[in-house]
Design a protein that fits this description.
CATH class of chain A: Alpha Beta
Number of strands of chain B: 2
Radius of gyration of chain A: 26 Å
Strand order of the largest sheet of chain A: 9-1-11-10
CATH topology of chain A: Alpha-Beta Plaits
Mean pLDDT of chain B: 93
Low-confidence stretches of chain A: 3-9
Number of helices of chain B: 16
Distance between the termini of chain A: 72 Å
Strand order of the largest sheet of chain B: 1-2
Number of domains of chain A: 1
Largest interface: A-B, 46 and 46 residues
Strand content of chain B: under 5%
Shape of chain B: globular
Oligomer: heterodimer
Helix content of chain A: 25-40%
Mean pLDDT of chain A: 89
Low-confidence stretches of chain B: none
Strand content of chain A: 15-25%
Order of helices and strands of chain B: HEHHHHHHHHHHHHHEHH
Chain lengths: ~260, ~400
């Protein structure tokens, strides 16, 4: 049983209090939702009106046996994305693996493979040799996004990991967290940079620069949500492997014909 | 930029085996070595102070206030190397405005603020409040005003107010111990949670960080106390000094056991990274890990303290030995931080090669700036000791009133 209070003073003030809270909440929420709505509109302006990120999920397939190590992809990427032209910064690279008859494996990637590879002069008899292109795996569970202290690196709705260069503080925790060494610190902008699958191209329906220039179609690009996509065909007709599966990052760059030596 | 490129070309010559192209540049350098080192000293000094208040270890009472001031001096400096290391320093504050809740690093700011404001400053204030009031009465001019401000214009020195101060200090210390554990265990977590890096990724990392922090904190306060006794030409309190050395010894034993466990575990499990880590220790970290961290920083001090305890050396020689031991321990803990931070970046995540790290004298990330960050806490401590004398006889007048 509640006791009725004499006079209405308390109830009045309680009503006022509730009203203030309600109005206060609305005053916070309404402008927020307006900004939210216009913000989305801004995004669709940027993408183009027809593009809806949630309807896509991008992935890449790499057929190791097709790569000839010409380095066109590395060169095209650097030109397309203004990557500093030094051996220490690259968004994609090619590794050469040479396994001798004794079972020793030698790996190299001079200048990221951009200038191609010189024939290895070696007394040892070769057992096998092959090239492996590397690119950001655009992980489904990206450790780099998890560790970014300010949320400057993020996963888009279409599954690409991007860095906001105007927000990144340059702490480089993401570089430490990436198991694949895909990120570098841009010496001019002083923020972290990485492969975007050429996001500015793919949202317009174009291919990433590295895929576009590959003379042997070692790189295949496509949309996992579209059944006709080349990457779906790639996954269907090849035995697929991803890099460092034990780390549970769930990469979206799929390799066919990958040797166990590759990490 | 040309400067950096030239340095990278030099580093390129030192690369052994194969490393990913982006790994030639080592990103977390000397400044990031200093950050866990300094934070560890804060946590260690605070835990030493809590021995007096919570665990009632009466012998180390003379170092109580000194430990608190040491913790504060180092805590003020702790975030500076981090901020200086940022590529975009001006955006550093975003960590507070838009923190990413899944990021261990983003939470550091909040743990830091909590520790500074809710623990250390509060404890110091309650412990010094009465002294501030007494000093304000004794001093004249601007000094009087400063003490008035420091006491936040309180004037109550009644027994009930003093007993409240004591209770508050006790309560804050009880909260402070887990907070100090959090502060430094958490720094260990920043490294230990990186699954991409087998040298860091270990559940033991926060615990090892914590115990090495306590070791370094005790050793630091021991050093400062020995120097203070010498400078002030006062009678050294040997019971206190011996007790500090005993605690140092026990904590080092725990630290040593934990690190040994980590080491044995790695070798026994022998995961795919074991070869490159072994190569890194023998080719890159031999001096800093085996000679400095293990032998000079751990085994020699442990044996020395054990010998001192067994043979009851004369007081003067004990003090000198303790000082050298504490110095060696500092060297050991600093190289521990070095081996974690730098070591974790020397090997390639392809496990096929090693890069190298060279310290340069100049530049924001160079030796001079780093040394500055190591000297700065002592300058702050000097100022703090000047204004808030931690010595027991200064406390005395406030106690009797």
């Amino acid at each position: 049983m509640r006791k009725e209070r004499p006079g209405n003073g308390h109830d009045q003030s309680r009503r006022d209090f509730c009203r203030t809270i309600l109005l206060g909440t609305l005053s916070l929420v309404v402008p927020g939702s307006v900004i939210g709505a216009t913000g989305t509109k801004g995004l669709s302006d940027w993408y183009g009106t027809k593009y809806k990120p949630k309807e896509h999920l991008y992935a890449m397939g790499i057929k190791v046996d097709r790569c000839i190590g010409c380095g066109r992809c590395v060169d095209a990427c650097k030109r397309e994305n203004n990557v500093p032209d030094y051996p220490f910064y690259t968004r994609t690279w090619i590794e050469r693996y040479i396994t001798t008859e004794e079972g020793q494996t030698i790996v190299d990637s001079p200048n990221g493979g951009k200038d191609g590879f010189k024939a290895q002069v070696s007394d040892k008899k070769l057992l096998k040799t092959y090239f492996v292109p590397k690119i950001c795996n655009q992980c489904h569970k990206p450790p780099c996004v998890q560790v970014c202290p300010v949320g400057a690196t993020y996963k888009t709705d279409d599954g690409v990991i991007l860095v906001d260069p105007e927000y990144c503080i340059g702490c480089r925790y993401c570089i430490q967290a990436c198991p694949y060494g895909m990120r570098y610190f841009h010496p001019k902008t002083r923020v972290v940079d990485k492969c975007t699958f050429c996001y500015h191209r793919i949202v317009k329906g174009l291919l990433p620069a590295c895929v576009e220039v590959c003379p042997t179609q070692a790189r295949v690009f496509g949309d996992l949500k579209s059944k006709a996509s080349p990457v779906i065909q790639f996954v269907r007709f090849n035995k697929i492997f991803v890099l460092k599966p034990d780390l549970n990052t769930e990469p979206k760059v799929y390799y066919a014909d990958l040797d166990m030596e590759v990490r | 930029m040309e400067h950096e490129i030239a340095r990278l070309y030099e580093t390129l010559k030192l690369v052994v085996g194969f490393i990913y192209p982006n790994e030639i540049e080592l990103h977390w350098n000397l400044l990031i070595v200093i950050y866990p080192y300094v934070t560890g000293l804060v946590a260690g000094a605070f835990i030493l102070a809590s021995l007096v208040k919570v665990f009632r270890v009466k012998e180390v009472q003379p170092t109580y206030r000194l430990s608190l001031l040491t913790a504060l001096a180092f805590l003020i400096v702790a975030p500076l190397p981090l901020v200086f290391h940022l590529g975009r320093m001006e955006r550093g504050f975003e960590m507070f405005l838009t923190p990413n809740p899944s990021s261990a690093m983003a939470m550091f700011g909040f743990v830091y603020i909590w520790y500074l404001m809710a623990v250390l400053l509060l404890e110091i204030w309650f412990d010094y409040r009465k002294s501030f009031i007494v000093w304000a009465e004794q001093e004249k001019g601007y000094k009087r005003f400063v003490y008035r401000v420091l006491s936040l214009f309180t004037k109550d020195t009644s027994p009930s107010a003093i007993s409240f101060d004591k209770k508050a200090v006790y309560g804050i210390t009880v909260v402070g111990i887990p907070s100090a554990f959090l502060l430094h265990g958490y720094v260990g977590f920043i490294f230990g949670s990186v699954k991409a890096n087998p040298w860091w990724s270990s559940v033991l990392m926060p615990i090892v960080f914590l115990f090495s922090a306590i070791v370094s904190g005790i050793a630091l306060v021991l050093m400062i106390y020995l120097v203070a006794v010498l400078v002030r030409k006062e009678e050294p309190d040997m019971a206190c000094i011996d007790k500090l050395a005993s605690f140092l010894f026990y904590m080092m034993l725990v630290d040593f056991s934990l690190e040994a466990l980590d080491f044995v575990h790695r070798i026994y499990q022998s995961e795919d990274s074991i070869h490159i880590l072994g190569q890194m220790i023998s080719e890159r970290l031999f001096v800093s890990l085996i000679v400095m961290q293990l032998i000079l920083g751990m085994i020699v001090p442990l044996i020395a303290i054990a010998l001192i305890k067994m043979f009851k050396w004369p007081a003067e020689i004990r003090r000198l030995s303790y000082f050298i031991i504490a110095l060696l321990v500092q060297l050991g803990i600093f190289t521990t931080r070095w081996n974690v931070v730098i070591g974790g970046q020397l090997f390639s995540k392809s496990f096929r090669g090693l890069t190298a790290y060279k310290i340069y004298v100049g530049g924001v990330e160079g030796l001079l700036v780093s040394l500055g960050f190591l000297v700065l806490p002592f300058i702050i401590l000097y100022i703090l000791v000047r204004w808030l004398p931690p010595w027991e006889e200064q406390r005395a007048p406030s106690i009797k009133s």
